[in-house]
Specification:
Elements (H helix, E strand, L loop, with lengths): L2 E3 L5 E3 L3 E2 L5 H14 L3 E3 L7 H11 L7 E6 L6 H14 L7 E4 L6 H13 L6 E4 L3 H10 L6 E5 L7 H9 L3 E5 L13 H10 L3 H11 L3 E2 L6 H8 L8 H8 L14 H9 L6
Helix pairs in contact: 1-2, 1-9, 3-4, 7-8
Protein name: Aldo/keto reductase
GO molecular function: oxidoreductase activity, acting on the CH-OH group of donors, NAD or NADP as acceptor
InterPro entries: AKR (IPR020471), Aldo/ket_reductase_CS (IPR018170), NAD(P)_OxRdtase_dom_sf (IPR036812), NADP_OxRdtase_dom (IPR023210)
Length: 283
């Protein structure tokens, strides 16, 4: 396993297992299988409604808690100091743990400044080892970074071969924030696994297009959390530390970047309205 060291000295595995869209009924089994394969970093969120499955798997695995790295995220409906504070306690209970390794604000909507104050308080109390954000574009990331006391250690954003976040990474690197990818396979969009560049480079190393894509991100020092409910795919995604892409191969894959999201944009008013529609307004 390869690691990154966050700005506060906490070590984080560069490869983890994500449970986005994993049915709650399947989460315990999936996480247990991932842990058996060798994953030690698990990424969940309040909005995934499967923190309980993650917590149950952690307990049943028998793996010492200090060997695991658990990430969860505060959802929009829990934005604001009081709600966020209560939600952190609820997440700790569901995850069956005394502390969360990495706590993120899931989306930059609602009173995320209040949420971050609750997170800083939990950090100082030893209930969280590192703080961060998710889906924060450079403008909102820089704003929160400037006004926070404990600086965001991680920003989890859409990152894959077609959206490499080259501009955003510049600002994160400048301020010591680690980039973390969600959707490293772009959910198969753009014929991802049939991409001729990935297939050609993968074949040269005896690896799949998926493994090649993950290796590219890892060599760019991007933390990745690929998700699958199939054990054989979990195993395949884990076998990415026994080969290295050349500079020429890295350049070929880098050229695939479009600089655009394959999912949504926070700069699109319709997208913002959709996110806000998920949370009833205060009256």
């Amino acid at each position: 396993m390869e690691y990154v060291t966050l700005h506060n000295g906490v070590k984080m595995p560069k490869l983890g297992y994500g449970v986005y869209q994993t049915p709650p009924a399947d989460t315990q089994r999936c996480v247990l299988e991932a842990l058996q394969i060798g994953y030690r970093s698990i990424d969940t969120a309040q909005a995934y409604n499967n923190e309980e499955g993650v917590g149950s798997a952690i307990t049943k695995s028998g793996i010492p808690r200090e060997e695991l790295f658990i990430t969860t995220k505060i959802w929009i409906s829990n934005a604001g100091y009081e709600k966020a504070k209560a939600s952190i306690e609820e997440s700790l209970k569901k995850l069956e743990t005394d502390y969360i390794d990495l706590l993120l604000i899931h989306q930059p909507f609602g009173d995320y400044y209040g949420s971050y104050r609750a997170m800083e308080e939990a950090y100082k109390a030893g209930k969280v080892r590192a703080l961060g954000v998710s889906n924060f574009y450079p403008d909102r990331y820089l704003d929160l970074f400037h006004f926070s006391t404990i600086k965001p250690a991680v920003n989890q954003v859409e990152t894959h071969i077609f959206q490499q976040q080259k501009n955003a990474i510049l600002y994160m690197q400048k301020n010591g924030t680690q980039i973390m990818s969600w959707g490293p396979f772009a959910e198969g969009k753009n014929a991802y696994f049939q991409n001729p560049v990935l297939q050609k480079i993968g074949k040269a190393h005896g690896k799949s297009a998926a493994q090649t894509a993950l290796r590219f991100l890892l060599q760019k020092d991007v933390v990745v959390i690929p998700k699958s409910v199939h054990r054989n795919r979990m195993e395949e995604n884990f076998q990415v530390f026994d080969f290295t892409l050349t500079e020429e191969e890295m350049a070929e894959i880098s050229a695939l970047d479009t600089g655009k999201s394959l999912f949504f944009s926070h700069y699109d008013p319709d997208t913002v309205e959709w996110f806000l529609s998920l949370v009833p307004g205060e009256r």
